[in-house]
Amino acid sequence: MDTYAIFKQTQSQRVSDGAVVPLLSNCEKASLTLVLVWPQLGDFDSLEYAWWLQRQAKQIQAKGVQIRAVGIGDLNSGQKFCDFTGFPAKHLFIDATGQLHQQLNLYPGLTWKVPFLSPLQNAYLNLLLMCAGIGSPGTLVEVFRGYRGDRNAPQLIAEDEEVRAFPLPPVNGALFNRAGGKGFQRPFELATLRLRNMAEVLKYWKTYVPDATYITQRGGTFLFDQQGQLVYEHRDRGILGFAANMSNPLAFLLK
Questions:
Q1: CB atoms < 10 A from the CB of 188, how many?
Q2: Which InterPro entries does this chain map to (predicted)?
Q3: What are the tens digits of pLDDT across the range 12-32?
């Protein structure tokens, strides 16, 4: 079965009303349909991807793109995710056990099993190893990019924008100019946004991650034309690897 056929037959629980409906409802007339299969809704990748979508929402809407996203969690984590990121609850669906991810043969992440550890303990151990770059290619490079800056990426925080990222005091966007200028991703700018995401998830961990069994599961991006033909896909191979071009994750869509 091809990728579009899998999505076409998938029914999932919609966050906005809890109804179980076809994933691609109301996408028939869209010029492009973007389907995002996210890992845990409390994952770095899910939160950061949603941030980029909100940042470029006007350009996406102008191209007539319909977006549907599926994340691992439950209705509570889905609603919390939408409240924090601004992602539309009517376009977010829940897959509690990553069944869709398995159907699509997406990378499950490390699945090493230490005999004397429980499945949950093994999941956390594998996650820590992936955060260290083991079984997660590109993760450490991407972490360092967040600290050193990137002249190929746009400026992420406006001059007059205030970012609250515990345990840091409130940070004004103009402060990053002192680290190298403006008009591009300044040093520490992306790292600060990621710290904000991490603080949010850790504060509400049980809400965002009701079952950590699937915490290493990675996601994927799939773009279809009006005829259901796959025109772009990206399959994540590690943490912070949700795009082929992390400097501009939506370049494939807005080119």
A1: 19
A2: PXL2A/B/C
A3: 999 999 999 999 999 988 999
Query: Residue 60: which pLDDT band, with cuts at 50, 70 and 90?
Result: very high
Prior bond of 167 cis (ω within 30°):
yes
Residue 244, CA distances (Å) to 46, 198, 209, 253 in order: 15, 23, 26, 12
Q: Which structure tokens are listed for 6?
A: 């899998």
d(CA 70, CA 211): 16
Look at residue 103 and tell me whether its pLDDT is greater than 90: yes
Model confidence at 165, in pLDDT bands (50, 70, 90)? Answer: confident
Query: Average pLDDT of the chain?
Result: 95
- Token pair in block for residue 175: 């402060």
Q: Which tokens sit at 13?
A: 């629980």
Give the 3-state secondary structure of the chain. Answer: CCHHHHHHHCEEEECCCCCEEECCCCCCCCCEEEEEEEEECCCHHHHHHHHHHHHCHHHHHHCCEEEEEEEECCHHHHHHHHHHHCCCHHHEEECCCCHHHHHCCCCCCCCCCCCCCCHHHHHHHHHHHHHCCCCCCCHHHHHHHHHHCECCCCCCCCCCCEECCCCCCCEEHHHHHHHCCCCCECCCHHHHHHHHHHHHHHHCHHHHCCCHHHCCCCCEEEEEECCCCEEEEEECCCCCCCCCCCCCCCHHHHC
Q: Could you tell me if 240 and 45 are in contact, meaning their C-beta atoms sit under 8 angstroms apart?
A: yes
In the chain, what is the straight-line distance between the N-terminal and C-terminal CA atoms, in Å?
Answer: 29
Q: CB–CB of 66/34 below 8 Å?
A: yes
CATH class of this structure's domain 3-254: alpha beta
